[in-house]
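Q: Now give one record:
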Amino acid sequence: MLQVARHLMIHGRVQGVWYRAWTVETARRLGLAGWVRNRADGCVEALVEGEAAVVARFIVLAHDGPPAAKVARIDVVEVGGEGLSGFEKRGTL
């Protein structure tokens, strides 16, 4: 199983719509590690680590997010993994 890490910048109406909580719930359900946080510019930022196919599935799901979200785009960058275990919500940057 190929392990990968992806840094995501999620743009659109993604704050104040439970996007971070949805991200934590979805990532944990899929067995992924990482973190998510709001950014002062209105985006949501996330680092997702796990099996390549599962990370890819998460990114597909993230384009919809929770019902109230309106995702305009997601910028995805391949990054080195941090060796995280579990998935957490972090404070705003």
About this structure: The chain has one domain: 3-78. The beta strands are 3-13, 33-38, 44-51, 70-79, 87-89. The two ends are 33 Å apart (CA to CA). Residues 60 and 74 are 10 Å apart (CA to CA).
